Amino acid sequence: MLAVFLLLGLGTQAAELSAPEKNFEALWGTFNKRYAFFKERKVDWQAQYKKFRPQVDADTTDKELFKTICEMLAPLKDGHVSLRARRLGEPEYCPEDLPRFTKEFDTRKLERQYKAMVQKTLKANGFGEPKTAGKILSYAHNDKFGYLLIHEFDSVNRRKLDAALNEVLGAMDGIQGIIIDIRLNPGGTTGITYRIANRFADKRRIGHHEKTKKANGDDKDKKEFGPLRTFYLQPPAAKKKYRTFTGPIILLTHGASYSAADLFAMIMRELPHVKIIGEPTNGIFSNMLERKLPNGWKYTLSFQVNYTAKMECLETKGVPVHVQVLNKRTDLKTGIDPLVTQALKMLGAKNKKVPQPK
Questions:
Q1: In angstroms, rounded to a whole number, what is the distance separating the alpha carbons of residues 80 and 324?
Q2: In the chain, what are the domain boundaries?
Q3: What is 107-283+318-349's CATH number?
Q4: CB-facing half-sphere around the CA of 292: CA atoms within 13 A
Q5: Distance between CA 231 and CA 229 in Å, rounded?
Q6: For the whole model, what pTM was predicted?
Q7: Do strands 145-150 and 177-181 pair parallel, antiparallel, or not at all (unpaired)?
Q8: What is the C-alpha to C-alpha distance for residues 47 and 64, in angstroms, rounded to an integer?
Q9: For residue 139, what pLDDT band results from cuts at 50, 70 and 90?
């Protein structure tokens, strides 16, 4: 009886619950109403309630409650789901299913070696020493092609980002193609994502669509999702003020390209002069909704559904690539990054002159 009542929304009976029960109900209830991907993640949230609710009562300790909630969240395998209980001394919990790349380069030492390998490959192909612009961008170029590494889509204001992009594209004036690298990119904000992508847009195009989960499917008085919003790629209006590039672009991605990096890859794929090589991005596109439990613990969840211009949801799948090339630990032995090598081959092929018939 209690379970049925709680599924309908707690109400006055919530006052009769103990503190551990209130915290469990608050988290479960918020996920029930706002989490957008139970179907995509193949998780029966009602079944999770029936399984884990009996484990919580007035005598449940904080550590036991934390463990129970983590076990309930585990099947979601979502990198945007988290639970923090700092006063408890527990590390932040996230049920993410680690991507192949992260498992392949699973130590900081290996990750540093991977980054050094990328730079070594660029240098071997005539690229100069990398320079940093606007905190989040690193760039280099040879006489034909440019390389732009986007570290994240956050931590810089619009004015500084605009100046950084002008610096990068100004330094690459006259080049024939650009490699854009978002491998190991943890994400950021939609605004910065579009502000960068717009510099490569050839014309106004639909970038993506988005809708927000508002209520659970059983709430007859409310719509489950808010209205669909459409975002557009748009070349800067003041072209003399903002440098742009609409030549051939190769975008490098892998499974550790997260969140706003997922979104960047999705909207860049709408541009006809962009090809993606590597492996699909992580597949967590939503912004993170953060909430706090009565006991002060904080948690996050995915509450927005993002769609391609053609209304395809890529959550859990990631953005597909045009050419699959994997970074493997064995690459460190050769010292050659196969993705950069493949990107240079593709750019070179695009820029070969086609013989004209006599």
A1: 26
A2: 2-88, 107-283+318-349
A3: 3.90.226.10
A4: 4
A5: 7
A6: 0.91
A7: parallel
A8: 20
A9: very high
